[in-house]
Design a protein that fits this description.
The protein has 227 residues and is α/β, with parallel strands linked by helices. It contains ten helices and eight strands. It binds BIS(adenosine)-5'-pentaphosphate (AP5) and magnesium ion.
Length: 227
């Protein structure tokens, strides 16, 4: 299963991608996490990307496309993946189509997580992420860590992303509206687009996604196993 998650910043793409990845046994590929990892390791790419990320702007298409191309070559993607944060521009849509054609694969679905901007601001305002193992996401109110400030999974310190300030969130929403939201028309045209109501609890949203993917049984199994 090859699924792309679309939606504005704060819609819950990372949260849902992580849950889907666990339940479906396929990797979660987040371009935001990949870029933040480069920034943390001070690679050449990280140094080029850091200021753009902090300003809420997209990093250059060629840079991020090379990162995704490399990641999709990894054998762990053979059984599918959840792609979170890519494509985000018309260039990236074409690049992804090329990568899929090169590997003789196709997307299963593009899920557009729909939530209004007021809720996005609320969600991002309380978000905390793990400094150690990228990908673990918490929220001060809706998904608090058991021990305040520390990751439930690895004990790493939680922090607020530098691009989660109210001003940068406004800029990221504007970039999303201008560059990324219009791409849904392309995927609607290919018949891959599925719109998912992303309001309500994370569990409710996961249930809607699995229903949309025609996999409601996966949720039943996960609940039975307590995951
Ligand atoms: P990226 O990291 O992808 O950020 P984003 O798209 O702005 O999305 P977010 O990570 O902010 O939100 P999310 O939808 O993942 O929400 P989350 O699950 O965390 O990109 C960062 C930057 O990298 C970009 O601005 C750009 O500079 C660069 N970049 C990345 N990809 C690029 C590309 N392809 N091209 C060019 N540049 C690129 O949830 C948010 C909060 O809400 C959390 O606290 C969570 O706990 C909470 N929450 C989640 N679901 C619920 C719920 N149902 N109810 C209540 N709270 C909830
Ligand atoms: Mg995210």
């Amino acid at each position: 299963m090859r699924v792309v998650l679309f939606g504005p910043p704060g819609a819950g793409k990372g949260t849902q991608a992580r849950r889907l990845s666990r339940r479906l046994g396929i990797p979660h590929l987040s371009t935001g996490d990949m870029l933040r990892d480069h920034v943390r390791r001070r690679t050449a790419l990280g140094q080029r990307a850091a200021d753009l990320i902090d300003a809420g702007q997209l990093v250059p298409d060629a840079l991020i496309t090379a990162v995704v191309r490399g990641r999709l070559r990894h054998p762990d993607t053979a059984g599918g993946y959840v792609l979170d944060g890519f494509p985000r521009s018309a260039f990236q849509v074409t690049a992804l189509d090329t990568m899929l054609a090169e590997t003789g694969t196709a997307l299963t679905a593009v899920l557009d997580l729909v939530v209004d901007e007021e809720e996005v601001v609320r969600r991002i305002g309380g978000r905390q992420i793990c400094s150690r193992d990228n990908g673990h996401i918490f929220h001060l109110h809706s998904a608090p860590a058991a021990v305040r400030g520390l990751c439930d999974h690895c004990g790493g310190e939680l922090y607020q992303r530098a691009d989660d300030t109210p001003a940068t969130v406004r800029d990221r929403l504007a970039v999303h509206r201008a560059s990324t939201a219009p791409l849904t028309a392309h995927y609607a045209g290919t018949g891959l687009l599925r719109t998912v109501d992303a309001t309500g609890t994370t569990e409710e949203v996961t249930a809607r996604i699995l229903q949309t993917l025609g996999l409601p049984g996966v949720l039943d199994t996960a609940v039975a196993q307590g995951s």
